[in-house]
Write a structure and sequence with these properties.
The complex is a heterodimer of chains A (376) and B (519). Chain A has 376 residues and is mainly α. Helices cover 76% and strands 0% of the residues of chain A. Chain A is globular, with a radius of gyration of 22 Å. Chain A starts with a helix and ends with a helix. Chain B folds into three domains: 233 residues, Rossmann fold (3-Layer(aba) Sandwich), CATH 3.40.50; 190 residues, Rossmann fold; 80 residues, no CATH class. Chain B is 33% helix and 26% strand. Chain B is built from 18 helices and 24 strands. In chain B, the strands form six sheets. Chain B has a six-stranded mixed sheet with strand order 6-9-10-3-11-12, with helices on both faces. In chain B, strands 18-21-22-15-23-24 form a six-stranded mixed sheet, sandwiched between helices. Chain B has a four-stranded antiparallel sheet with strand order 2-1-4-5, with helices on one face. The longest helix of chain B is centred in the middle third of the chain and has 16 residues. The two termini of chain B are 45 Å apart. The interface between A and B is large, with 38 and 47 residues.
Chain lengths: 376, 519
Amino acid sequence: MNEKREQSVLVQRSWMVAAQKIGAPLISAALAVVVGSFIIWASGYDPRAAFIALWEGSFGSPKAIGDTLLKATPLILTGLAVAYGFRAGLFNIGAEGQLFLGGLAATWLGLSLAGLPWFLLIPLMLLASMLAGAAWAFVPAILKARIGAHEVITTMMFTYIGRYLVSYLVIGPLKAPGQIPQTAELPGAGQLSRIQALFSEATLASFEFLKLGRGHLGIVVAVIAAVLVWFVLKHTTLGYENRAVGFNPWASQTAGISVQSTTVKALCISGGLAGLAGSTEVMGVHHRLFDQFSSGFGFTGIAVALLAKNHPIGVIPAALLFGALAAGAGRMQFQADVPQKIVLIIQALVIFFVAAEEIVLWLIRRRQKEAVSHAG
Amino acid sequence: MPVLELREVTKAFPGVLANDRVSLVLEKGEIVALLGENGAGKSTVMNVVYGLLSPDGGEVLMDGRPARIKSPRQAIDLGIGMVHQHFMLVEPLTVTENIVLGREPGRFGAIDFATARRRVEELSLRYGLKVDPDARIIDLPVGMQQRVEILKALYQGARVLILDEPTAVLTPQEVRELFSVIRSLVDEGLSVVFITHKLEEVMAVADRIIVMRAGRVVGETSPEKTDDVGLARLMVGRDVVLRIEKTTKPTCGDTVLHVEDLRVRSDRGLEAVAGVTFSVCGGEIVAVAGVSGNGQTELVESIVGLRRPLAGTILLKGVDITRADARTSIEAGLSHIPEDRHRRGLILQFDLAENLVLGDHRVPPYAKGPLMRPGQVGAMAATRIADYDIRTPSAGVLAGNLSGGNQQKLVVAREIGRDPELLVAAQPTRGLDVGAIEFVHRQILAARESGKAVLLVSLELEEVLSLADRVLVMYEGRIVKELASGEADAETLGYYMTGGGGEKLSAQELQAPTHGGNA
């Protein structure tokens, strides 16, 4: 009878874990909206109007959804990058730098091989961006594995090097003729097309929802990457070792897993994913490189991974939420007259409530405890 | 009137009833042993008494008056002291400083160390707790540190002293000393609650025995009225074989492990293993006995590929694995039950199946190229869970949610189930209760019967005596004595373990680095 009780406790716990995994981020987001409303109200604006505008600007029309997808694309990839690192117990805070190198590699290759057809050029550019991002993470990875240099410091420092390297190149060697510090435009074969451009006028007329405006095929790349990362983590020895080292490096070592080699692989894969965010951004949005081409996607990716609890599939909705906030901010400003910066506060609140998950979990647990004591 | 009385104390954690209407009394000048398996609720109920947990029901009476104990501070003020399994001492401070910490004599913020030191000496003398008041904690062996904890409780005016698994970290000699200290405490009128899951200790020291199982008091007896077997039955709820008799003689087959003049450095750079030579052959259990910190950990780590030896040779079935890493060793046929299952044995956030495949996760049939094969892993996990009687609703439960005994079964299932040539078992029953110990011992013996070589490293003399075909006694990094199972008994082992063979050591050997109990 005692055994039965122990078993029921175990079963109960595993569903509790599942509920907490999915429920806590949702509650965190909801709490952010509630507290955000209060802040909007206290600042003398109308929270209802603000959220309506935010909704319309992010999901209200096919074009708005396209904008959300556009903003979510790099966030999915940087979110995956950070999440993959976290799964090995590594905090890749330098996704931004790896993203810059990815954008640089793709642009350089696209401009150099301008004559190639798209079906060769696009895969090559994507691949180059991954290799460049991985290479940018490789030095911090080796330093971590060999001498234990903390990756938070080294990847961050490499971000500065990467950003300033790109700044230098777009002012100097790679600068296109003209006043503006930017490279020449990529050839058409090196651009990721807009989704609506794939369909004929007639199709678009009958299927309104395909008019996704600026939304481009990078989202497909990002979703494929998420599924691949999920598969790697779940179904390969590489992913198994990655998770094992992330949870318990001592037990992993005892079982014959090389912690050093796993660390290097994990940071390089993380860097590669961040690099991919750089190329999709260049190829799908700007079609050229300039020094402000990323608005901190590498850093927001940390928040995305946090919200997704480092689950590769969870990264997709988390990135969509942050993408929607970014996409809807403009409309909130001109339609509800609420400053765009309020969105940053809401973003910060989401991060705060996720980070302060203990508060949320405590609320859940208290309810569960009540339920248990009623049942007992 | 009893000093301490518990009436129907109930404490629930989410999903578990840790204490179910626990009632007990403690008289003045009495030693009560609180006996039970891990997870029976012994520590929980005493943490309630000490104010660390608040009960969901029932009451605690001190000197016949209901006491609302909400913090350890209140417990101390009422005269209740508790010594935890993990000591709460400030290591860089001296004995005196630690004892008076929180109640320093003196005024205007200045501590009167002379008075403090004098009081500590008085207490030390009165209760026969010899300890140097000026020694720093970090320099003291574990047994001494425990005395400091007891002195601290006495200094704070404890009349009821709760000792939570006090012998878990002690050597046999230290255990004997602790028992005589406990007796002198009760002679002075104190009352002691002694929490343990070790039967022989209960029989040796207790006036009265209260047995708990699954959160309830299931029986009360005294050493005169019962024996080991009766206690074990009460505690586990079924008959338990305490000491498994080996039915067969060792069948010494081929030499499986040969270690030649092995020298290994500890983390602190000292030569922890100072030239060790021995062999283990298939079908025999060789035990390494010794007091903790005499080089056993380093010896094991170098054999299993976690630590590079300085010099020497390790051969596994004739293959040189001296400088092999853990992966190569596993592939060469080595299995390892690590001494710390939470740190090295299991990944608590992994489920049972993932833990069972750990170490074999990259070889067929569990992997095919870069891919894992969940079907094969799941089938293997189901078999192991059944064969090794791991109590779980499914293979998908996280290892961290299992009880200590089941976690160790999980490690044993993985390491023996791999069908190795050599099993290195380091303290395989540490912290387990009698039921689980019996199970692990049976599995190790079964491995021996099936012709595997077993190297057992244990601090538990009972375990060594019960399982080993040959015993190697390790002291200060060397094997100072080898005994056949017939020649070995607790006294002889204890003698050599504490350096009793010292007259055989040469002058050069005496200069070898020593290892304190705090290593």
